[in-house]
Write a structure and sequence with these properties.
Layout lengths: L10 H4 L7 E5 L4 H12 L3 E6 L2 H13 L9 E5 L5 H14 L5 E4 L17 H25 L7 E5 L4 H4 L8 H4 L9 H27 L4 E5 L7 H10 L1 H14 L3 H4 L1 H8 L1 H5 L1 H4 L3 E3 L3 E3 L8 H17 L5
Helix pairs in contact: 2-12, 4-5, 5-8, 8-15, 9-10
């Protein structure tokens, strides 16, 4: 094995055989989700690509096969998942539990980035719905299966929530007391769209902390991590340039092309969190941790370390879900 906690981390040499493991990655038909799946499947895992667009998903799976899923590698399977509707997110998790008897790793990767402020019919802003609430429902519905898998001798069950270092910029003074907090449009921020995205990414970190606390309280040997993947040139980041347009969009596109890393390298931190042996070898060190590339335990901004805020987020999320008829 190579050095699995350094910037020289390489999935091809620093993680072992993943044969027999079942891994689920949300938002995997492009960007770092796609390359995360690629790395894990090449080590032998059966990896589910969960997303809302079946046509794009199937095309991505075909592309994965062409780019190098060889005999002896794992397989990639499509799972339909609509995170913008918590009822559908719950249904997708229930369907998964019907077809699989184990789940070793869940990587919550899907996200909306910088989009216009919008509150759909359920009354929760779409960025918070997709990036936090949908994953909250999906993860909690999968927890019984994750816990059962964790009971097996030699198991290594993990939940990975992909956040962002944007929490360092905007992650201060946030609250999650009620629907109004969830739906804050951050109109006074210099970039309201960026601030809304940052709120959801702080939620990812806080969800990680509170979920880990609850699992520890139960004695479930599951490791939950959040992470910053790095600054990556993906379809999502280029979409930011297109959405902004004009001079700002052009500058963002230029920086993306010249200074951002590739999705292949950008996925390394997610792969580390999902599979690096050093994480399981040091569970108390990594439980609830926030990782910067690659595998470096870091502080996720001021709000990301607040235990009371994590509990507030969890409580309000459950209350809002009950209001729209979703029970967990």
């Amino acid at each position: 094995m190579g050095s699995a906690s350094s910037k020289n981390f390489n999935p091809a040499t620093d993680i072992g055989d993943l044969s027999g493991k079942v891994i689920l990655v949300t938002g995997g038909n492009s960007g770092i989700g796609y390359t995360t799946i690629q790395h894990l499947a090449r080590r032998g895992a059966k990896v589910y690509m969960a997303g809302r667009n079946q046509e794009r998903g199937k095309a991505a799976i075909d592309r994965l096969k062409k780019e190098g899923l060889e005999p002896g590698n794992g397989e990639v399977v499509w799972l339909e998942l609509e995170l913008s509707d918590p009822r559908k997110a719950k249904s997708a998790a229930e369907e998964f539990r019907k077809v699989e008897k184990r789940l070793d790793v869940l990587v919550n990767n899907a996200a909306l980035i910088f989009v216009p402020h919008r509150i759909p019919e359920d009354g929760i802003q779409d960025v918070m719905m997709v990036n936090h609430v949908g994953h909250f429902v999906f993860t909690n519905t999968l927890l019984p299966l994750l816990k059962e898998t964790a009971k097996e001798t030699g198991s290594d069950v993990r939940i990975v929530n992909v956040s962002s270092d944007i929490v360092q910029v905007y992650g201060s003074g946030l609250r999650f007391r009620n629907r109004e907090d969830f739906n804050d449009d951050h109109a006074k921020a210099w970039s309201p769209a960026m601030a809304r995205h940052a709120r959801s990414k702080v939620a990812n970190v806080l969800f990680t902390k509170e979920l880990q606390r609850r699992l520890d309280e139960e004695g479930a040997p599951i490791i939950v991590l959040s992470l910053h993947p790095g600054t990556i040139n993906t379809e999502g980041t280029m979409g930011v340039a297109t959405w902004n347009g004009g001079v700002i969009g052009a500058i963002f596109a230029w920086f993306s092309e010249h200074f951002f890393t590739t999705p292949t390298n950008g996925a390394y931190n997610s792969v580390f969190a999902a599979s690096a042996p050093v994480v399981r070898a040091n569970p108390e060190k990594y439980k609830g941790a926030y990782l910067r590339p690659i595998g470096v335990i870091s502080t996720p901004g001021k709000d990301g370390v607040k235990t009371d805020l994590a509990k507030e987020l969890w409580r309000t999320t459950e209350e809002l879900l009950k209001e729209i008829g979703v029970e967990l």
